[in-house]
């Protein structure tokens, strides 16, 4: 099965309204794992409260709320802004998940933690007493391209 990645529809609005505090390099961006009980809704899901009920239970090295994404970089070249970060990983863990969700964990309440993107593994992905890793695309977690002037 193919892995697909999509940004949540509210991401650009939340970005423009400065709801993402941690995107500039602070360690508040996290990756949470979700079970196959999750039904992605790109248009309606906006915050962690929309996905919390389907999060993988804390087990081994997986803690509730997921992994903090570190070593974030923001770069610009040829009108393309790239946001990148280290991969999310949980060593020595037994995990089965179908989705990974990236979000801003700055605020205390789930309803105030905006979603950024969702990775659909296409099928359950598992590790057994090993490393479960979500590896981002070599060109970054996401890019924003500005159109050339007319």
Salient structural properties:
five-stranded antiparallel beta sheet; 42% strand; 150 residues; mainly beta; 8 strands
Structural features, described:
The structure is a single chain. The chain is mostly beta strands and 150 residues long. The chain has one domain (4-145). 4% of the residues lie in helices and 42% in strands. The protein starts with a strand and ends in a 5-residue tail after the last strand. The model has no long low-confidence stretch (mean pLDDT 92).
Quickly describe the structure:
The protein is mainly β and 150 residues long.
Fold blueprint:
Blueprint: E1 4-7, H1 11-16, E2 29-34, E3 67-68, E4 73-77, E5 80-84, E6 88-104, E7 115-134, E8 142-145
Antiparallel strand pairs: 1-7, 2-3, 2-6, 4-5, 5-8, 6-7
Arithmetic mean pLDDT: 92
Series of H and E elements: EHEEEEEEE
Class from helix and strand fractions: mainly beta
Shape: globular
